[in-house]
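B., you asked whether I could sanity-check this one before it goes into the benchmark set. Here's the sequence:
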Amino acid sequence: MALSPNYITPKGYSVLKSEYDRLFATERPQLVETIAWAAGNGDRSENGDYIYGRKKLREIDRRLGWLARRMKAAKVVDPAQQVNRDRVFFGATVVIADEDDTQREITLVGDDEAEAGAGRVGWNAPVARALRGAAIGDLRRVMLPGGEREMEILEISYPDPAA
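And here's what the prediction gave me:
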């Protein structure tokens, strides 16, 4: 089964890369050193430093594997390079109004960098899928956990290419 590309902004990719580098170059070696020290202290079955260290090492290795897979599948897309700026595509910042005339500003980003509280919505989220390809003035319907909602696109913007 072919997975869809893992679209991500350059900033989002650098965050993943820096976490990978920090875990691999700093935290993991320190933990291995602690485990080796704890293993040298005798009985490992009741050695808290050893047991906790091994558990933490498994967690770090699992996270490193996940980060490596996400970075390998990543397709870095710079929204500032978007040519067609009158429609909603990856990286667009969109002002929408719902049926209650409540306005929200959201930015469509990669799923790994989504943070709804900060207005960053993942590219594969229902709202983002509904907005893809929309132009100013378009009405789009989206099915949310609270029921179906209709949204109107009020503004579309992209980062400045010079920035």
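One thing to flag: DSSP finds three helices and seven strands in the chain. Otherwise nothing jumped out at me.
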